[in-house]
Amino acid sequence: MEFHRPPHIYVGKVNIKVADLERSLTFYKDLIGFQILEQSGKRAILTANGRTPLLIIEQPDNVIPKQRRTTGLYHFALLLPNRSDLGAVLRHLLQNRYPIEGGSDHRVSEALYLSDPDGNGIEIYRDRPSTSWEWNNNEVVMTTEPLDAESLLNEGEDVKWEGLPNATLMGHIHLHVSQIANTEQFYQGGLGFDIVTRYGNQALFMSTGRYHHHIGLNTWNGIGAPTPVENSIGLGSFTLIFPDSMTRDKIIEQLQSIDAPVTKKASNYITKDPSGNTIELQVNE
């Protein structure tokens, strides 16, 4: 978890839109294990440790279902501190008979995949120690192998599920985008992320500090996929955390040099990637 603190740039929180706030709160509290930090009207801020916002859920006016074949959220990913915690989550999901859409061993991590009641994608994972990761020509070696669920359940056998562990982080975000070339220019030339894995012309994994990825990007919803309408279920925005104001100021200059939009909102700044995904630029507090 050393990749989610200064001097790195990393994802802090994710904002998603849902159809029914109360239904979503029940899901995110009872099944995923969040606590409510704040709630007002049709918006709630969720936390794992009672202090740090990780997920914001809101119900837009005149909300419409998630639009297919558009840009936006593929999944947000919750990083757990220990393998035993992931085993406890797996047992909890199985006991509640909630559909698990996948489970994979990526060599650098082990992950479970599911969706919330509105189809917003979720990954829950744990990292293997970074000293065990393999690199080839500055690209991290990642695979998609079957998850050893039996071993994982055994590991979490003595861990009682009591919600998300306090040390849970927003590990990364994975986005649908419309094109790879302009996306690469934005996230690398603008936001300063490094490419750590490339899958042909269909997907990129990017990070700072040689993490396996803080941001995933893919065109699996189709090259040229449109931006969804504002009131549809899906991604509202996500926040990138910068180590200090100087680093953020430099990034803002880089974004402006490639003609990316940057606007000020209170003490923070907002930008949008070429696919219309909204990003809040925040300094570490």
From TrEMBL:
This is VOC family protein. InterPro entries: Glyas_Bleomycin-R_OHBP_Dase (IPR029068), Glyas_Fos-R_dOase_dom (IPR004360), VOC_core (IPR037523). Gene3D superfamilies: 2,3-Dihydroxybiphenyl 1,2-Dioxygenase, domain 1. Residues 10-127 form the VOC domain. It comes from Bacillus seohaeanensis. It comes from the Bacteria. It holds the Pfam family Glyoxalase.
